[in-house]
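Fold it.
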Amino acid sequence: MSAAVRRLLSVLLLAGLAPGIGCAPAALLSPRPGDTRVVIFHSNDVHAKIDNFAKVAAILERERRSGADVYYFSAGDNFTGNPVVDRYAPPGEPMLEIYNRIGLTLLELGNHEFDYGWERLDRYLAGASFISLGANIQPPPGVLSMVRPSTVLETKNGLKIAVFGVIQIEAGSRLPSTSPERIKGIAFRDPFETAREMKSLRTDRAALIALTHIGYDQDRILAERMPELDAIIGGHSHTRVDPAEIVNGVLVAQAGADNRFLGRVELVFRNGRVVEKKGSLIDLQKNLREDRDVAAMIARFNLNPSLNRRLTRAPVRIAGKDALGSLMTDAWRQVLGLDVAFQNNGGIRRNIIGPDISLKDVYALDPFDNQVVEIDMSAAEIRGLIRRACELAGGDIDLQVSGLTYLVRVGADKKVKNVDLRGADGRPLAEDRTYRVALSSFVASAYGFEHKDPGRALGLTTADALIRFLEGNPDLTSYRNLQRAFKEISDDEEE
């Protein structure tokens, strides 16, 4: 390949016009004397998995000693997923201490930042040494006052890098994916409309970066709509983008989830503008050097013997949303003496538990502190709830169930045609009676289904109901490969 062809291919790749657009440029110019090299490390959707942060700390420190301008960004969702953090007093504090210690630069709030409630988040951010972003978050006066729409970072030689952040919202509720009561009083604008307003940040700045929590597909759309951006560093969809992609000339990066990978984006500036950019992931599951002080912090946080208390032992491992969701809903229904129970797939945060099941396993499976809510519902209203859940899930099964089984018939257009309900005895559910239905407070408040009874919280969290159930040493044999919710593709007209 001639030098001219190589130069042309490099230009096309940077513009997003060459074949293989899903990959970062294979060949980049080397920094020249006088260039500025900026390295941005990034994490997203850590979900309180703290064990690899000693490796992250060592990587950051090594890069800082190289002479480059080094920053560390978080694209959100640092809570919910590890009882060591979620059950700490106060909740989330280990994440704050670790981030302050290793030098986090910027945090874009994710939907799970609100899982402890905005009041706790407010106190958390007040103790942060990093800057928090959220341009499309509109809190009332005095709430989340530490959150900024954008900020400007300045390199050692005076280059200015503007960064703004946006959080995802659901199409129906126009709220992030967390319990609505935990963000009560806060409004959220459309992230794309908000991002467009950030174009003015580009003026006299060397670079413009979006730190997002809207998901990989949405990041690609944003890149297509905003070629003014130099990079998008994202989260929410748990996508491993390795190497970082170039879309419409914009670098798009994301680092998976659960702190298994650390993202590294490198920008080279010449004459006040970005002339090359690339990104890749560092595998934190490998045997890498650790920062001793941070490792000691993590060991201290992990020292919580009460979480290791064994609740019961299962004869088999219980795996998959169907089986685990059936176990969870059986617990709510039986402990509280109700007729039917539903759990959404998003509320099932582990893929497998057992054979020994500890308190830590339960809190990892169900970390949200949702309340069990009872609603009296007719068969028609139950059918409407299932239909609504399938619509929100794009035509897929979303609700696991106890007390009945159901079959959803979905058309090729992914719209629900009808829902067949069967009682535990296999017979069609009676249409002329009312059923006492248990839901998590998240589903009850966020799914927007029709029901006459407003419902009532029963004073017990979904996790505590499961703990009580397991402490009774139930026979767990039946949960192997158990399924109660079914889907069928149908071209028939709606019944």
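Residues 39 and 341 are 49 Å apart (CA to CA).
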